[in-house]
Amino acid sequence: MKVLHLIDSGGLYGAEKMLLSLVQEQVKQGLEPMILSAGERGVSEKAIEAEARSKGLPITLWRMKSGLNLKGSWSILKWAQGNDYNLFHSHGFKFNVLLGMYPENVRRIPMVATLHGYVHAPRFSKMWLYESLDRFAIRRIRGVVLVGEAMKKQLPGKLSSGHTVVIPNGLDISELQESSLASLDEPFKSFFENHDSVILGVGRLSREKGFDRLISAFSEFRNAFPKSGLVIVGEGRLRQQLEALIDELGVKDDVLMPGYCCTVPALLSRSKVLVMPSLTEGLPITLLEAISLKTPVIASAVGEIPKVLGNGEGGELLSDVETATIFSAIEKSVTDREHSGRRVDWAYGAVSKDYSSEAMADEYLAFYKRVLGTP
Predict the structure, then answer these.
(1) How many Å is the Cα radius of gyration of the chain?
(2) Which stretches make up the Glycosyl transferase family domain (predicted)?
C-alpha cells in the first residue's frame, strides 16, 4: 500500500512528531509511505524535513505558492496519480482543503485526514476562513481520524460518527529516552547551570498556548524562588508581544525563548516541570514525551489531557489559566517532590501501556483497510 502523507509544517511540534513516528512504523509494517512536505518557494529545508532525513524516512520536498493554490494542488494530484499512490493522508487544514475539495471521481485517489486540533481563530480572520473551509472539505473524504474523544465536540454536525475514528497519538519511548541523554549546547547549557529550577513550555507562540499567562505566573514564582528560570521553546507571531511582557515584568535574564529547537527531549529530562496552560489542545505529543521522561506536568483540562493524566492522578490539571492558579501549581510541583513523583509514576505506566507508536500504527493500518475496503 502506497500512502502519501501531506503536511505544510511550521516547526517540529506535535503533528510533525506524530507523523514521523507513524511513517517510521509504517515502513516496518511493509507499507510504502511518503511524506510530502510543502512550503513556500524559496524556503530552505524545514525542521520536519531535516528530522525525516536524519531518521532515514522517505520524504519529498514540494515548494509552491502559499494560500488557496489550486494550480499547486492540481500539480500534486497529477504527480500522485502518476506515482500510483493508493491513499492520501492529510495532516492539517491546508491539504484537507486543497485536495479534499476535489470530488473523488476527479481525485481518483481516496483520502483520509488526521485532525490534530482546531485553534478556534477569531471570527472572519484568515485562519477562521481556513477552518471553515476545512470543516466543509472533510465531509468529502473517506474518513477522518481524531486524536481524542474530546475532539468530537468540534466536528461539523453533518459529519457522521461512521465517518470518524479516534486513534490516540503514540511515540517510541525507548528512542525518546535515548535522545533525552544528548548534551546541551549553548545557550541551554549555561541557562541550566545558572538556574536551580527550570520550568519548561513548548509550542507555537500563539494565543491558544497561553504563554502570556505562564510568563506572568513565572514572574511571581521567581520572586519566591530567585534561582528559577523559564524556557519557552517554539516560534510564532506572538514573539514580540511575549518579549515585551518579559521586559515589562523585569524577568529578561531568567527567561529563555530560543525559538524552535530539536533538543526538546533533552530539555524535558532536565526541567523541573512542563507547563501547558493551553486554551485548546488535541492530544499533545509534548505531553506524552514529558510523561515518558518522567517530567512532572501541569496542564489545562482541555482536549485529551485530562484522560491522559487520569483526571489528575498523573499530573496537575489547572482549574483555569489565571496567573495565580498557574503560580500555585508550579510552586506545589517544585516543593512537593514526593507527591509529584507519585503522579509521574502513575502517568508513565499509563502512557507506556496505551500510547506506543506501534499501537498507533496498527490502528491506522486497520483504518486504512476499512476505508479502502481491502482485507
Answers:
(1) 21
(2) 187-340
* pLDDT of 88 higher than 60: yes
**The sheet that has 255-259: what strands, in order across it?**
255-259, 228-233, 197-202, 273-276, 297-300, 316-318
Question: Are both 238 and 127 inside the same structural domain?
Answer: no
* DSSP single-letter state for residue 167: -
Question: CATH number, domain at 7?
Answer: 3.40.50.2000
Same-domain status, 152 and 300: no
Residue corresponding to grid cell 479502502: 372
Model confidence over 319-371: pLDDT tens digits?
999 999 999 999 999 999 999 999 999 999 999 988 999 999 999 999 999 99
Length, in residues, of the chain:
375
Residues 101 and 114 in one domain: yes
**Residue 260, domain extent:** 173-354
CB 274 within 8 A of CB 286: yes
Q: Quick one: 41 and 186 in the same domain? A: no
The C-alpha cell 515548494 sits at 63
Asked if residues 108 and 132 have their Cβ atoms less than 8 Å apart, the reply is no
Domain count, the chain: 2
Residue with cell 481524531: 146
* Amino acid making up residue 248: E
Distance, in Å, from the CA atom of 47 to the CA atom of 351, rounded to the nearest integer, reads 26
pLDDT in tens, 264-291: 999 999 999 999 999 989 889 999 999 9
Backbone angles phi, psi at 216, to 5 degrees: -65, -40
